[in-house]
Design a protein that fits this description.
Elements lengths: L1 H12 L12 H54 L15 E9 L4 E8 L5 E6 L5 E5 L5 E2 L6 E9 L7 E3 L7 E12 L2 E12 L5
Antiparallel strand pairs: 1-2, 1-7, 2-3, 3-4, 4-5, 6-8, 8-9
Organism: Candidatus Staskawiczbacteria bacterium RIFCSPHIGHO2_02_FULL_34_9
Protein name: Prepilin-type N-terminal cleavage/methylation domain-containing protein
Keywords: Membrane, Transmembrane, Transmembrane helix
C-alpha cells in the first residue's frame, strides 16, 4: 500500500521514485491528505451549488404555475364582465370595471372590481398582508395565490392610463385591463425581482 501511495505521488508531481524505497514519509502523507481534502471540498461545493440551483428552479416553476392559474382566473372574470346596471358591485351604475385599493406611493391601483356574466361580484386585490386575494359577493377575502411568495406590488391599469379608474358603457369601446405582479425572489445571498403580467380585453356592446 505504501509503494502504491508513493508511486501515485511521484506520478502526480513528476518526481522520480526509487523502487528500493519503501514506506511513506510524513510529508508525503500530508501531501496526499491535502490533495484529498481539496478534492472533497470541490465536490461538496459543486453538490451544494447544484442543490441550490435546483431549489431555485423548482421555486420559480411553482411561482409560474400558481401565478398562471391566478391570472387566468382573474382574466376569465374580467373578460366576461357585464354592465353593472345597479352599481352594487362596481360602485357606479353602468360600470364594467372599477379599480380599487389605490396606492398613493406608486400612484397605481392594486385591485379591480367586476360583475361577471354569472352575476357574481368579484374583487381581486393585493391585501395589506402582501397576499393576492379575492372577495366574491361580499364574502370574506380568500387567497388566490400562495402566501409563500413575496409580492412587492400588484398594479391594475386600464388601457395603459393610470388616471382611468373605471370603465362605463359610455366610455371606452375596447378597454383593456393590464395586471402586473412583482415578486421578490431569493437567490443565494442575493435578491432579484421577477415581474409577471398579462393584459385582458373586453369588447363592450352598448
Amino acid at each position: 500500500m505504501g509503494c502504491n501511495t508513493k508511486n501515485l505521488i511521484c506520478f502526480m508531481f513528476h518526481v522520480p521514485c526509487s523502487v528500493k524505497q519503501k514506506g511513506v514519509t510524513l510529508i508525503e502523507l500530508v501531501v496526499v491528505l491535502g490533495v484529498i481534502s481539496i478534492i472533497i471540498s470541490a465536490t461538496v461545493g459543486i453538490f451544494t451549488s447544484f442543490v441550490r440551483q435546483q431549489s431555485r428552479i423548482l421555486s420559480e416553476q411553482e411561482l409560474l404555475s400558481q401565478t398562471s392559474y391566478a391570472l387566468e382566473y382573474i382574466s376569465r372574470s374580467v373578460r366576461d364582465a357585464v354592465k353593472d346596471t345597479s352599481g352594487s358591485c362596481t360602485g357606479t351604475p353602468s360600470n364594467y370595471y372599477t379599480l380599487s385599493h389605490f396606492d398613493s406611493v406608486s400612484g397605481s391601483y392594486q385591485g379591480v372590481k367586476v360583475l361577471s356574466s354569472d352575476n357574481v361580484c368579484h374583487e381581486f386585490f393585493l391585501d395589506a398582508d402582501g397576499i393576492l386575494k379575492e372577495i366574491k359577493d361580499g364574502q370574506i377575502a380568500q387567497p388566490i395565490l400562495s402566501g409563500n411568495f413575496d409580492i412587492q406590488y400588484a398594479r391594475f391599469i386600464i388601457s395603459g392610463d393610470k388616471t382611468i379608474a373605471s370603465v362605463s358603457s359610455s366610455g371606452l369601446t375596447q378597454p383593456r385591463v393590464s395586471v402586473s405582479l412583482s415578486f421578490k425572489l431569493q437567490s443565494g445571498q442575493q435578491e432579484r425581482e421577477r415581474i409577471i403580467q398579462t393584459t385582458i380585453g373586453l369588447q363592450i356592446q352598448n
